[in-house]
Specification:
Blueprint: E1 2-6, H1 15-24, E2 29-31, H2 51-61, E3 67-73, H3 80-97, E4 101-105, H4 115-131, E5 139-143, H5 151-160, E6 166-171, H6 172-178, H7 183-190, E7 194-199, E8 201-204, E9 216-219, H8 228-237, E10 243-246, H9 259-271
Parallel strand pairs: 1-2, 1-10, 3-4, 4-5, 5-6, 6-7, 7-10
Antiparallel strand pairs: 8-9
Length: 274
Amino acid sequence: MKLAFTTLGCPGWDLDTICKNGPKFGYDGVDFRGLQDEIDITVTPEFTTNLSETQKKLQDAGLAVPNISTSISVCVPEKVDQCLEEARRTIPIANALGTSSLRVFGNGDIEKHTKEELADFGQELMEKLLALDGGSDLKWVFETHDRWIASVDCKLLLDRIPNPAFGALWDMGHTARVGGEAPSDTLAALGDRVYYTHVKDAIYDTSHPEAMKDGWRYVSPGQGQLPLAEAIGLLREKGYDGWVMFEHEKRWHMELPEPEEIFPVFVNWFNGLS
């Protein structure tokens, strides 16, 4: 397995700092979810007019870009045009950088539609996304997030969109913490269509001032209550040799440790599992 970090975890870093610190801290790749103050990399100079320079900097640093995290929601029919436009901007960047996958969300309004109807919307949009120029050259991974966390729902979406270019981004924290599922149950539903992963740890601590609304707060990997080691072990048993991304959400939770402190901690923890 190869290790990546997300730019959510280092919102203050510019591209040069990313290229310097990523390899130094032991990472093989970087997942772009924005860059500094801009959440959409497709509107930044680094990924438009200066894309070739960015490509060279990443290549010289030995940092791959395994995934670009988009804001595309495939099960929201009201946002089809918006999602297609974002995809048209993102696909050329991903292909230029040798990116393997694009993260998308499921989402959808469960007050207006059944899960089956939402899955139908997802199927329709994915057909349009894959038909875009360069779209079929990528994997499209929906994150186990929002309306699509429970195994039964994830399997519904995967079954409705059987194209092997569409798969799952297994956020181990969401399926365990929010979904309340054992890793074995989640993996049984996702099967061999886990193309990417997110890893972060948390502890249930309602009395702590940094606890989120659901009573959980993020902690250093291995210091929480989530079955991360079990989940990674199960993936290894299945022969998964893809990316494990440390999803440190510093951009959304500024109280979390600085990347210079926590990024090496994750690498050491992961290496200690094998």
